[in-house]
Structures are given as C-alpha cells and as structure tokens.
C-alpha cells in the first residue's frame, strides 16, 4: 500500500518557466506551524495520549505557550461581558430614583443612563477584539492538531493502515478535530463567563443582602445534581453515536470504491440494502441521543424557571417588608436570571462537551498509537549502488500461525534483474514489502549495499528506489503532477522522454492541454492501461537504483505491454530490478527467476535454464500455455 498526496506541479518547476508574480500571503499560511513546531506538538500530544491522561488535561496541553494570547482574550471578554453586570445596577438606581423622587433624581437617572450606554456601546468593539485574539489561538490549535495527525498517520506502519478503514481515519481528522475545536471554544468562553458572572454576582449580592445571597446558594446544588443525574446516559449515547458514525463513514468509503464492481454484477440493491443497515443504525443512535438531550434540556428549564419565580416572590416579599428597595427587586431578579442562565447554559452544553471529550479520546487513539514505522538512521547510506541480500529471512503476519517466508536467502548484485514467480500466497509480495521496508523481518536480515536495513535511514533509502504497485494510484491533478510527484526539479523534456518510453506519446498528443491535462479522481478519465503506464512513468523518471514492479503490466494490452517491456528492459541495464509478474512470458529477459512455493525458494535460474530443467517453473509455465 502506498501513500500519495496531491501536490501542485507548478510551471516554475519546469525549465524555462516564467516566475510567478508575488501574491498576498493568506492568514493560514502566515500562521502555518513549522515542521519542528509540528513535531513538538505531536510529541506533546503523544505523551499525553500514551499516558492515558484525562481528556481535560490533554485539552489544557493545547494551550501551552499561548498564555499571553489567552490573557489578552480574557481582558477583552471582561469588557465585553461588563454590560451584563452594569445594566442591572443602573436599572435598579433609575427605578429607585423614579419611585422615590427628590431634587437629585433626574441627575441620577441621566448619569446611570449614560454609564449604561457607554458600557453597551463598547461591547461591539471588545467582542470583535476578543474574537480576533481567541480565534487566532483556537484556529491555530485546529490546524496544528490536523497537521500533527497527518504527520502521525504518515509515520504509522503499513500494517496499521491495512487494519483500519480509511473512512474512520478521515472522520478522526475532520469531524473529531472540528468537535475538539468547538469544545475548546465552548469551554473557554462558557466557563470564563460562568466564573465572571458568578464572581460578580456573589460580591455584589453578598455586599447588598446576605439573605438574598443565601437564597442564591440553594440553586447551585440542584444544578449540580441535575447535571450529574444525566452525565452517564449522555456520555454513553454520545459514545454510541460517534462509534456508529465512524463505522458508517468507513462503509461509505468502501461502497464508493465498489460502485463499478457492484454495477458490473448488478448488485446495486445489495449495496443499498447493506448501507441502509448502517444508515438506520445512525438514525436509531441519533434518535436516542436527541431524546436524552431533549429530556436533559427540558428538565433543566423546568427546574430553573421554577426557581426564578420563587426568587421573584422571595425578593418581592423582602421589598414589602422594607428589607430591600423596589429597584433592588429588579436587580436581584436580573442577577438571578443571569445566574440561572449561566448554570443552565453550562448544563445544556454538557452533551457538546461530552461529544468533544469523546473526540479527544478518539484523536488519542491515533496520537498514542505505538505502531510507528521504525527508522533508526544509524549508518548513512550515501549513493545507493543496488546490492541486495536476504539472509535467512523469516516473516509471519501477527494474525497468522504460519510463516509467510521461511529461511529466505537471496544474493542480488547491483544491476541484476530478479523475477519472483509462484502461486498466490507463495510470498512474492511479502518479499517486495520487506525490500521496500513496509514490514521488518521476524528473523534474519536484509542487507542493502552490505548495510543491515534496520540501521538505514529508510527515507534516504526510499528516495533512491521506485515502486510500481499492482493497483495503480493516481490523484486528481494533471498528468505532469502525477508523473513528477514529489520531485522538485523536473524538465518538460524529461517528462516527455519517459512518456515516450512507456508508449503514451500518442495519447498525450491528442489531449488539448498535453501533460497539463487534469485527471479525474483516481485518474478515472484514463483507461486501466493508460493509468498503469503513468504509474510506470512516475517510477522511471526518478532514475532509481532499485526498482520494484509488482504485477506492473497486468492491466496492459499486448501492444502497450511490449512498449513497457522495452522500457523496463532498458531500465534493467541501469538499476537493480525486482519483478513479480502473473504472465510468465513477461519475465523472459530477467537475469534470474526465483520460483517460490509456501514461502520458500524452490528454483533459481534464467528463463532458459528453468525451462530446460522442467521443474516447478516449467509446470507453472505449462499451465499458462
């Protein structure tokens, strides 16, 4: 399995291209974290995830190094929130002045109106400044989190990616990170306002009327008890819903890949029925989640509205008894409403907080995963010569009781071409995966230019080899993008040379934009043979020292196959070549053919030698005749 990302091959990469005009740098580009910064962020996340710390602790770790911005945000949020505290006081003063008029009542009313208006008008500007400060932090965390996850996924082993559905990983990168971003926003703003409002209300109420303050204290235990009563069912329903969404997203990705197969065999209704099962489960889980959330909110509303009326009755009684003024009835009622609103909001967003915390755990499944591809980088490789030696290599997949390879020993000289043949399951692809470094041997060793492969910088090694997989992997860029993928300096002449080598020049000449023609998703605008030849061209343009062909001509017609064979024959003269081919006639020019059965080497020799021997290879060839 190979991984590719879409890269723009700009005309500036080609010789003679005109330089692009300077463009305005986007906000996201100015704030894009450096590679070193991403690695530190990833290491920090992985440390927390691996230690199984509480999700809240992981969330707090996101803000490391951003304290100054958070203080700036808090300052503007205090100013933004201040009208909520000032307006009730001003209203109380105005009502008291109006109900008990004297010589200074008009001045009191005017002064309080002006102060209230001042605090109201500044709200727009401070709200904007608070959003600017916090958004730069929050969106930066969102970008860093996604970048760290992408980096981690690129580091995880091929075995991990074979076991986990790509749809589930897409959900974690997009949906779970979005949930975490919303969670950070909710926690910071809601909790910050909650603490501010409670603090201000307590100070003012305690100073004016300890009796009313004691009444307010009764509300908090009920709020906590209500939240705790619903905590477990809400968390469980969110877990069920998130898990079902991930499963369904994986199933949708598979369904989209299977559309041509399903259509070819008339199995549309089978796929529809299968997807309906998944979709109905989401409906059921979502319905149950909506019910518990609705009941959660309704109970909170009834409880707090009831207490609000009780508060009004209580303060009105105190006013009648002369304990407080009429204006203070409005003050306390407004503060109580604010207090109730803050507690109610805190409780009502609990389902969102629960969903966000589940997403934190989901992201932790990736960031804390230990199945990382090893890269020791002990011995520098330098320029690869192409000598490969397998020494008593054994390999067994984790879920298997039987060795896929047993005592595999093979010495390949630089520039030699080796063809691996055998029945399905003989271990041919495993040999290639070992050679590429996708999997390590269970025992034995693989020497590259005499250096044990486990001691090499695997990326330095892979930069000097090329792989043509059995399943062609193209992305929806141009033909140039796909051929020159990952190469910084490629001339148009070089691209056209490899296109000619693989027999695509006739097709390119017929296209209006030539090599700049845009391909559809997965290169679906091309035939299977054309896609395969572009994949081969991608390998040839790298001028590798070792090249691996895994059934590379399986999708080609006879004419195209002949052209590709000519190109690969020329390549065999310049690099070490490993081939796996279903059609045994295509490996006639290989220096040596390695016939495999049950993970072991049965025969080794040239095509003519093995045919003359009339052994296992001869039997395989006879079956295809």
From TrEMBL:
Membrane topology term: Multi-pass membrane protein
* The entry's keywords: ATP-binding, Membrane, Nucleotide-binding, Transmembrane, Transmembrane helix, Transport
Q: Which GO terms describe its molecular function?
A: ABC-type oligopeptide transporter activity; ATP binding; ATP hydrolysis activity
Where this protein primarily resides, as one coarse class? membrane
- What are the residue boundaries of the ABC transporter domain, all occurrences included? 388-623
* Protein localization: Cell membrane
Superkingdom field: Bacteria
Q: List residues traversing the bilayer.
A: 187-206, 212-230, 291-320
GO CC terms for this protein? cytoplasm; plasma membrane
Question: What spans are recorded as compositionally biased (Basic and acidic residues)?
Answer: 18-29
The ABC transmembrane type-1 domain sits at: 86-355
Region annotation (Disordered) maps to 1-29
Please identify the protein, giving its name as recorded.
ABC transporter ATP-binding protein/permease
